[in-house]
Write a structure and sequence with these properties.
The chain has a domain of 117 residues: Cobalamin adenosyltransferase-like (Hypothetical Protein Ta1238, Chain: A, Up-down Bundle). The chain has five helices and four strands.
Length: 189
C-alpha cells in the first residue's frame, strides 16, 4: 500500500519544523522555506524551457542547493547541531560566479535597462529571478527579527539572483532574441 500523502496534522494551521517544534504555518520561517520551494519549482519550469546542456546541468545543481537551503531553513535552529543537515558551502557561490563570468564573456555590454520578455524562457528566467529576490528578502527579514538564518544562505540567494538575470540574457542571446529595451516615457514638467 502506498504511503498516504495527507496526515491531517496541519488542519489547524500548524506544522512542525525539522526537530519537532510546532509553529504556525504563517510563521516567517515557514514562509521563507516555502518561497525557496517555490523558487525551486520555477527553476524546474525554466529548465524545461531551455535546451543548452550546460545551463540545464547548472540549474539541476542549483535545485540541489535549494533543497539544502530549504532543509537549513526548516530545521529548528535550537536542535540543528544534533541533526545531520547538509551544508551550503562557499564553493557553491563561487560556482555561480564562474557561471556568470562564463556567460558574460559572450554577451554584449548592457547599455540599457531591459524588460522581461521576447521569449518564454527569457520571461520565465526573470520570474525565477524575482522569486529568488523575494526568498532573499524573507531571509533578511528573519535575520532582522533575530531568527537564525545561515549567513551563507543570504549570500547564495543574492548571487543566484544575479546568475538568473545573466541567464535570462544568455538564453536570449543563444536564441537570437533581441532584448526588450526599456524606453521610459518622457516626464512632462
Amino acid at each position: 500500500m502506498a504511503l498516504k500523502i495527507y496526515t491531517k496534522t496541519g488542519d489547524k494551521g500548524k506544522t512542525s519544523l525539522i526537530g519537532g517544534t510546532k509553529v504556525l504555518k504563517s510563521h516567517i520561517r515557514i514562509e521563507t522555506y516555502g518561497t525557496v520551494d517555490e523558487l525551486n519549482s520555477y527553476i524546474g519550469l525554466l529548465n524545461d524551457h531551455i535546451t543548452d546542456v550546460n545551463s540545464k546541468h547548472m540549474l539541476k545543481e542549483i535545485q540541489d542547493r535549494l533543497f539544502t537551503i530549504g532543509a537549513s531553513l526548516a530545521v529548528d535552529p535550537d536542535k540543528e547541531p544534533a541533526m545531520k543537515i547538509p551544508d551550503l558551502k562557499e564553493e557553491d557561490i563561487v560556482m555561480l560566479e564562474h557561471a556568470i563570468d562564463h556567460m558574460n564573456e559572450v554577451l554584449p555590454e548592457m547599455k540599457h535597462f531591459i524588460l522581461p520578455g521576447g521569449h518564454v524562457a527569457v520571461s520565465t528566467a526573470h520570474v525565477v529571478r524575482c522569486v529568488c529576490r523575494r526568498a532573499e528578502r524573507l531571509c533578511v527579514n528573519m535575520k532582522e527579527n533575530e531568527l537564525f538564518v545561515e549567513p551563507l544562505i543570504i549570500k547564495y540567494l543574492n548571487r543566484l539572483s544575479d546568475y538568473l538575470f545573466v541567464l535570462a540574457r544568455f538564453i536570449g542571446h543563444q536564441n537570437n532574441i533581441n532584448e526588450v529595451i526599456w524606453n521610459p516615457r518622457a516626464v512632462k514638467v
